[in-house]
Design a protein that fits this description.
Helix 2 (36-49) crosses helix 5 and helix 3 (59-75) crosses helix 4 (88-95). With 333 residues, this protein is α+β, with helices and mostly antiparallel strands. The protein has 11 helices and 6 strands. Residues 21-31 and 178-184 have low confidence and may be disordered.
Length: 333
Amino acid sequence: MKPLNLLRRLIFPGLLVVFTLFLATPNSATAQAGTAAQVLAEINGVRSANGLAPLVENIYLNIAAQTQADYIAATGIGSHIGEGGSTSADRALAAGYGEGATVWVTENWARGPGLTAYECVYNMWVPSTDHLNNILTTWHNEFGAGVALDSNGFTVYVAVFGHTSGSVVVQPTIDPNAPTTTQAPYIQPVTTSTPNPDGSVIHVVQPGQSLWAIVDAYGIAMADLLALNGLTEDDAIFPDQELIIVAASIQETVPPTDTPEVEEPTPTLTPTPAPTKTPAATQVTMTPEPTEAERSNFLVNIFSGDSLWIGIGLVVVSLFGIALLLFTSSRLK
């Protein structure tokens, strides 16, 4: 066989294998519904809601919890008994917890399809007295968690609580004379808030709520919630704490400061006095007495100018009167 033909026969199957691996279904473990950190955060959320200090995460208890989660996922056997009949304390010691000291360990486990960390803690562990006692422990001070996905797509959660002989566990101080108080509810559903006029959404934390429960209710990313509020996943939240869910998007218009209007005085109009009317004096035309000169010139005035005919008329009338008088007198004799 020629070398060239042999090379072709080897290359084709090799490419086929590479192509098949490229299209192969990814590992189902990447589809798990929650993480160990989420479980621990939910547990500390329940403790905070009930006035208890948070437990401290321990890497060796994480390993012990993950070992049992992997065992349950692989065998399908849900139990506190692990591989080879080991107990939770055996697995903690095998992981290196305590470094030779005496250890005390308890354990919670749960399994379900599409089970989230919030649902695991609040729907499966909190309603159970034994599991809740582990969560609200005042005996242990450390914890760890593990998560695995089985062949059926069920998510397995395991939480391990413990303390060692060398650790100091702070017990809560209870005053027997203190008034009796009602314990905060372990489970408080998250009621979403309505947006404010500026577009922001503020959530007021209620007893029993946790960061993951709030994230699930509002449908936002945990990273966004933490960034908006300056928190980390390890931070505890407290009742009546205000969390920013959505930042303000509309800047409120601040009304300008009202400048008081100075009322201008109404101008006083000084009435212009009406001019005093001087009553017109009744003019009495008095006929002046004729002077001597005027009398002497009477006849001249009558027989001059436009009065000439008047003067002639007067003479004629006078003469006619005298003639009539003379005639009458002569008849009477």
